[in-house]
Fold:
Amino acid sequence: MDPLTRTRRDALLTATLTSAVAAVLGLGWLLLPGRGGFYADPSNAWLASLAGTTTATVVHTVAALLGVAVGLAGLARALPRPVVAVAGVLELLCFGLLLQSMGTLAVTGYLVAMAMPAVLVVLLLQVVRRYPVARWVVGVPALAALVVGAVLAREALGTLTVTLTSALAAQGSRLLVVLLLLLTGAGWAATLAATAAGTPRAARATAWVVRHRRAITVAAACGPLPYALLRLTWLLPSDLLSPALVPEGLDLTTRVWGLLLSSGAWLGVVLTLGLIRPWGEVFPRWVPRLAGQRVPVAAAAAPGGLVAAVLCFTAVPMLVAVPEGNLTEAAYLALVFPCWFWGPTLALAVWGYVGHRRADVGSGATGGSGGDGAGRSASTPVTAG
Structure:
């Protein structure tokens, strides 16, 4: 049997564990139908809207049980690589397509938006701590603006906090299942990629992606821009733009929420560009305790790959959800939420990042090139920008 590399083992272990949890849930939904299940709401999965609750639940359970069996056998090296690859394709088809919905993107986007206030405050505090010039030009003024804004919009912020907290409490179980399906699909996607790695065909494909990774990454960074710009229009007076862009009667709470959603999208733009910037390979000096150390490949590849999975998994359910013949709405969704473009390009950008970093290790690149120099540990300090 083929040797089980660390990457393959970790990916397969993740896929097996998430499949096991999914199997337990699926069996519970089948054996206790009176309690209902996740797929009782057809909008929770594309397959449920096509074939009904029972079919979706059965497919979920069978796929999860198969995933556990294949995962355990694969971890024991009892299955050849081609069998694991075929099983990975089937699992990805189920958990990455048939059992997905637009809810995957909505849940992820909302969680990121809710975290943005804390992210912004931490970043500004680090600017104040680490950059003497930017401290007074950017850091202090921005923090002061945040404080003033929070005071002026305290009622709207309070209302938004209560609304979001109530929504999380009411939809908590649904959110957890959505995240489980996402992690299961992403785990099998990672397993499939790790299984294919090391073959001549994969090496040729990786070389092509690495050569074009800058253009691919810039294209991926453009993916969030339409949504980021659209949500910023909520800050404008309603009479300046079309109601299609700025709905009439937006209150301050909704406008603040739009700003948070937009900021999350802008964060995606910046982090995507980090895949081709020096600070994507070496921690910059404002990062506490890690400044000057090399960024572990997984620290960028894992979240980037997970977001790419969210986008790819959402692409088909989003497009097929448009009523037949409504070309205007289809074009609107394809432009504002370009998952069909953003997801694949982000996946390729992450692929190129991983290939580039591993090529640097193999060639013994030095710290000056921004790679993982051979013989140098991930914790070795290097010059950071």
Notes: Residues 226 and 244 are 14 Å apart (CA to CA). The chain is about 70% helix and 0% strand. The chain has a mean pLDDT of 88.
